[in-house]
Amino acid sequence: MESKNYQEELAHIRQLMERSSRFISLSGLSGVIAGIVALLGSVYVYFVFQRESLDYFDVERNNYTHDLAKELFFVTLLVLSLAIMSGFIFTARKSKKKNLKIWDSITKKLLFNFAIPLVAGGTFCVALWHHHHFAFIAPVMLIFYGLALINAERYTLSDIKYLGICEVVLGIVSLFFLGWGLMFWTIGFGFLHIFYGILMYKKYD
Q1: CA–CA distance, 92 with 99 (Å, rounded to integer)
Q2: Which residue range is the domain that position 132 belongs to?
Q3: Quick check: 103 and 123 in contact, CB under 8 A?
Q4: Alpha-carbon distance 127 to 17, whole Å?
Q5: How far apart are CA 38 and CA 32, in angstroms?
Q6: Which of 45, 88, 128, 184 is least surrounded by CB atoms within 10 angstroms?
Q7: Residue 161 and residue 165: Cα distance in Å, rounded?
Q8: Please, how many CA atoms are within 13 Å of residue 115, restricted to the half-sphere of its CB?
């Protein structure tokens, strides 16, 4: 009986330590929704290329007009905004359910470490866009997003680093298949997010 109480106390202490050092309210559902949004964005981009009579896989011959580049930029921005919004909504709901604060010093550290590679990668992508190196944007997005996840892992669920590693590897491979950037982007931001979200939902939610 005493042994059982001792084990329960240790488990409780470990739980308190985890709550004080890591942000554990990330919701698996937010990953699933982000993946679905990314898939919808990929389908839209595919039909945009069909509408413009462009072959996405023909990197050398494609001519991106100013209006097309602007449309693709806003699609990417919309996908990112919806993913962030869904992440916040589901994470806030999970935090409320577990009586945890959604905004504290750990959250600030998490966001700071996540933002550094993400902002650097975003700036790099804007530079690539400016110089019309469009084929490199998808691989760069995957690589820097993966690095952001890996960098933020120390302040949240450790499982997130595996998603980050997969994103980085996928981005590196994509660098050698530049005409297939949309496909790799769809796998990385779409299917991997959905797969990861389902796993996290079953494990933590």
Answers
A1: 10
A2: 25-204
A3: no
A4: 42
A5: 10
A6: 88
A7: 6
A8: 7
Domain count, the chain: 1
Flag whether 19 is in a domain. no
List, in sequence order, every beta strand (DSSP E) within the chain.
none
Residue 185 lies in a domain: yes
Structural domain includes residue 17: no
pLDDT tens string for the chain (205 positions)? 455 555 555 454 445 444 444 555 567 788 888 899 999 999 998 888 888 776 666 555 556 677 777 787 888 888 888 887 887 777 777 777 767 666 777 778 878 888 999 999 999 998 998 888 888 988 999 999 999 999 988 877 778 889 999 999 999 999 998 878 888 999 999 999 999 989 888 877 6
Number of Cβ within a 10 Å radius of residue 97: 11
| Residue 80: inside a domain | yes
